[in-house]
Specification:
It is built from three helices and four strands; from the N terminus they run βαβββαα. It is an alpha+beta fold.
């Protein structure tokens, strides 16, 4: 891995801009992309990896939390896919903005 700062946070604790970029990176939901990792106490947890130019994020969530996040998020349709209009909005927003 590289020398980027590593951030370990819950999805809800992330800035909205990072949440939107994560949705763009995982337009078909999070559950299938979770990885297992050992926390500082050696206990295994699951999380969603996400990397920006400046930071590496590991978003803490279980597969059940991932399912609920997508099910309750209006940005995703009933099939768990990011809505086309939302995807286009986020792509326009972040493709032009190199600060993230």
């Amino acid at each position: 891995m590289n020398n980027k700062p590593r951030i370990l946070k819950a999805f809800e604790a992330l800035d909205i801009e990072i949440q939107e970029q994560i949705k763009l990176a995982y337009p078909e939901g999070f559950k299938e992309h979770l990885i297992k990792f050992a926390n500082k106490d050696g206990e295994y947890q699951s999380g969603l990896p996400f990397e920006t130019e400046e930071k590496y994020y590991l978003v803490k969530m279980t597969s059940e939390e991932a399912r609920i996040l997508i099910a309750e998020d209006d940005d995703y349709d009933d099939d768990g896919n990011l809505r086309d209009n939302v995807r286009e909005e986020f792509e326009d927003k972040y493709d032009e903005d190199d600060d993230y």
